[in-house]
Amino acid sequence: MHFFWKPYKSDVTSFIEELKAKKPTLEDEQRSGRGLLWDRAIDREAQARYRQARVPQQPYVYYQNSSD
């Protein structure tokens, strides 16, 4: 090992660390934003109705069925 060796840190890692140092509430804001879009309760009954109403797709969608 060299005496002047420093561990490598990418530009992206440096940028993210600098961003977090400037705005310490960033991670909490990201988590609350995620809660708005992704962390929601699932309506199991509605999901079951959607599955029942689904029309199966033909293997080749551009094929014109002669029985139509």
In short:
This protein is mainly alpha-helical and 68 residues long. Helices cover 50% and strands 0% of the residues. The longest helix is centred in the first third of the chain and has 12 residues, at 11-22.
3D architecture notes:
By secondary structure, this protein is mainly alpha-helical. It contains three helices and no strands. The chain has helices at residues 11-22, 26-37, 44-53.
Keyword list:
mainly alpha; 68 residues
What is the structural class? mainly alpha
Give the fraction of residues assigned to helices.
40-55%
The termini sit apart by 75 Å
Assembly type of the chains comes to single chain
Mean pLDDT: 86
How many β-strand stretches? 0
Helix/strand order, N-terminal first: HHH
Shape: elongated
Helix tally equals: 3
Main sheet specs:
none
Low-confidence region ranges: none
In angstroms, what is the radius of gyration? Answer: 26 Å
Task: Tell me the β content.
Answer: under 5%
Q: Could you give the topology of this structure?
A:
Elements: H1 11-22, H2 26-37, H3 44-53
